[in-house]
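Hey everyone, long-time lurker, first post.

I ran two proteins through the pipeline my lab uses and got sequence/structure pairs for each. Pasting them in order. The first:
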Amino acid sequence: MPAPVQFTFEMVPHEEGNNLKSVRPPVIPAGRLQIDRGLLVISSIEFEGRRDEGKDVFFGTNFPEPVTINLDTGETSHELTFDIPQGVYNRIEIILEIGGDNGIPMVLEGEIVKGQTDNIPLRFEYNLRDRIRIRAEPGEQHNSIVLRKDKMSVATISVDAGEVFRFISFQSPPGGLDSLQITEGTVLISSQLNTGLFNNMASRLERSFRVIFD
């Protein structure tokens, strides 16, 4: 029997040096990163599941139009709810195909804080179509993922901006502000601009995704 599963999305913001509250008054280091906004575009979802009993489950859905997701609010352009065979799953993998015919597959945005009020906008554009494979995890206090026909399950896909920006800092040379290409007042990191940073961050993009079934 099918079990209803709703897919939702969220973002884990990144704030470099978020222990600043321990200092009175707080000292704001020049070049501190704050990443708190994001956009994701997906054109398909694939599900690969292995159950303790019953056949393994494999299916994929190609959307008529790419689904746009506002990562900081969780809003999606289309509701993503699927009927998936019920059962106890010991392994689930979700594959997202990101990108579409138009638009940028993934964007993360924030600011480089230079002082109390003097900030520089920053925008990371992953402008390559790609497939993101995510190993699903059960919710808290569960050892396996159980999908039931009489209960709506929620699969929350989160993007951890801190993982993407893990080794990125502009607080001191050689990664300081002077090393950046700034376009129209914005630091744009893409496959065409600030490419060294882009390659560094793109290599960790898939690891920034998690999916938890509750």
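...and the second, right after it:
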Amino acid sequence: DKVGGRAWVRNANPTSKLQTELGVYHLQYDLDYPAPVGLGTWPSRDELLEHFHNVSVEYGLMPHIQLNTAVIEVRHIVDQQTLPFYSPERQHLSVLTQQILETGKRDATQQAAFSTVSFFPGGLVAPLRLEYKGEEAFQGQIGYGMFDEFDYTCVRGAAPAIIGFGAFAVENVRTCLEHGASKTWILCRRKNLAMP
């Protein structure tokens, strides 16, 4: 159980690094708090996860965070219709959750009431996996560039092709070159602004 969301806990590779400068991407982003010390400008996945955890502990958030929890239902309940919509006594939200156990099974349903709910689903939840014609005949490594699925030790002296041009494509160009690739090829429909 780690604070960091799916993008950093599950999707990111051990070699993943922040592509936005740390000065605008950290948890103490407030006028009253300086940027964290001990982290580089582009920290790694593991350094960011440690930062997220340390700040959550320092600010007393961990007892109030439920990790590995599935939200089953959110219901809007009107308690006093005659009150103005902004009054906290007018309405509440009833939320049903289930803790996801290590076995993948779900625990008993829990119910809680809240005055507001913030929902941050992110955009890296269901990556597109394609199978290309002739993959079975290809003699090299084929792997998805996230979830720690690719063995970068195999690219030394080679010229790997990276399909796509999202953040993980840019990351994999850097990582392949850091692991000794002679060059990398990007195959994409259109260029993004974040050029490697």
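Reply from user beta_strand_b:
Welcome! Quick read of the second one: The chain has three domains: 5-64, 69-114, 135-187. The longest strand covers residues 69-78.
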